[in-house]
Design goal:
The chain is of the alpha/beta class and 245 residues long. It has helices at 11-21, 38-46, 67-79, 85-102, 116-122, 126-133, 163-166, 186-193, 218-229, and strands spanning 50-54, 57-64, 108-111, 140-141, 143-144, 197-198, 206-214, 233-242. It has a six-stranded mixed sheet with strand order 1-2-8-7-3-4. A two-stranded antiparallel ribbon has the order 5-6.
Length: 245
């Protein structure tokens, strides 16, 4: 499978000229420079790769998710700093090409799709952009599946009121701002993710699955499950960054 592509050589020159007209600060340290100053780029190059298992499949990650790498990825995803895609994507693309070279001929490349909210807000897919800057063509995506909301069980009408039901926001069940994946239990994270992805056209195929960041691993594990459920076999997972287990 030919997944390589080339970026136009004049892009760096254009960015250099634009940097004179519209000054850019380094996303790593804030110094007036290009997207990433030479000191931060050197620090990024020294960041070690990471290898772990997800759902019994080897995951290769270009970086450990933390510090400078975390800052750059958040700047890219939340602030639209697409000029950071090249320094992050170069190593990512190299890992993807290596995984495909070691896989059987005809191996498919599938990406974990962004959330619908994230895709609408950003207007681009970070994985596609990072792969393009790393010399890999746009891969196919798994499909997100809408699940019906869980049925809500109401207490009997004659049940005594409890603090959680009679005074919203004061009980244990009250919503807390920022109550996200880190605050959920492992069971809650898995329950919220299982059966949310579907893989099409992978029956009898070997697959490499890619994503940008792997933290708890539940999303990547769901991608592996979706491929297996569709009759495919995941031979490798690759991410830009991953946390240590």
């Amino acid at each position: 499978m030919d997944v390589t592509t080339t970026d136009r050589p004049w892009q760096d020159a254009v960015l250099a000229v634009l940097g004179l007209v519209l000054p850019i600060v380094c996303a790593g340290c804030g110094a007036p420079d290009r997207a990433l100053c030479s000191a931060c780029r050197s620090a990024l190059d020294r960041e070690p790769r990471r290898v772990r298992l997800v759902a019994g499949v080897r995951l290769d990650a270009g970086f450990e998710y933390g510090g400078l790498v975390r800052t750059l990825l958040l700047e890219l995803k939340l602030r639209g700093r697409v000029d950071l895609a090249r320094p992050l994507g170069t190593r990512f693309g190299a890992l993807v090409r290596a995984a495909l070279a070691e896989a059987p001929a005809g191996t498919l490349l599938l990406r974990v799709p962004p959330s619908r909210h994230g895709a609408r807000r950003r207007g681009f897919d970070p994985v596609v952009l990072l792969l393009a800057r790393g010399g890999v063509r746009r891969p196919r995506a798994l499909r997100r599946v809408r699940r019906p909301p869980p049925r809500r069980v109401c207490p009997p009408t004659d049940a005594p009121a409890t603090p959680a039901t009679s005074r919203p926001g004061r009980g244990r069940s009250a919503h807390r701002p920022g109550h996200g994946q880190k605050e959920r239990s492992a069971v809650e994270r898995v329950a919220a993710t299982v059966s949310t992805l579907r893989a099409d056209g992978v029956a009898g195929k070997d697959v490499v699955v890619v994503d940008d960041v792997v933290t708890t691993g539940v999303t990547m594990a769901e991608a592996v499950r979706a491929v297996r459920a569709a009759g495919g076999r995941v031979v490798r997972c690759v991410a830009v960054a991953s946390v240590d287990e």
